[in-house]
Design a protein that fits this description.
Elements (H helix, E strand, L loop, with lengths): L8 H11 L3 H9 L10 H4 L9 H16 L8 H12 L2 H12 L5 H14 L6 H9 L3 H12 L11
Helix pairs in contact: 1-4, 2-4, 4-8, 5-6, 5-7, 5-9, 6-7
Length: 164
């Protein structure tokens, strides 16, 4: 997304877990990505739920926390921009196909697509803007999809924070 994302207290707390190398917490968050272990993330995520939240918002918080634990590398690029970088580096056409499937994903199927996308950018040591990801998933709608489409097909933006 090209607009300024607000700082999310959950992401700040997750960054602290990663910086302190809290392996037990990160492992619990990774395990929470499987349907039968979601409750393992509750101690780390539930305190950050908005006071008034929908089930979708709570699900987004839990999902992003688990994904962060898979790849706790913070950057300035949206997941879409990170995928573009991987595509540009590898020249793989399948990345674009995966990205289109992600954009077309029904909210109920979004978790699986996101796990694959995060694993792909992790395999290329490409950082992600986790604040942006949480904001995008919380409001998974046509506008959010278009913002990601611009990040993927629109080219590099000057504020992306290119890393060398």
């Amino acid at each position: 997304m090209n607009r300024e994302e607000p700082s999310e207290p959950l992401i700040t707390a997750l960054e602290r877990l990663a910086e302190s190398d809290d392996r037990a917490a990160l492992a619990a968050l990774r395990r929470s990505l499987s349907a039968d272990a979601t409750a393992q993330a509750y101690p780390y995520v539930v305190p950050f739920f908005p006071r008034v939240s929908s089930p979708w918002t709570e699900r987004a918080y839990l999902l992003v926390a688990g994904l962060f634990a898979l790849h706790p590398m913070m950057g300035a690029a949206s997941l879409a921009a990170a995928l573009r970088r991987v595509r540009d580096t590898t020249g793989s056409p399948s990345i674009e196909q995966r990205f289109v499937a992600l954009l077309d994903a029904h909210p109920e199927d979004l978790g699986g697509h996101l796990r694959h996308a995060v694993a792909l950018v992790r395999s290329h040591d490409t950082p992600i803007d986790w604040h942006n990801l949480l904001g995008t998933i919380r409001y998974w709608n046509e506008s959010a999809r278009r913002d990601w489409a611009r990040d993927f097909w629109g080219g590099a933006s000057p504020d992306e924070g290119e890393t060398t």
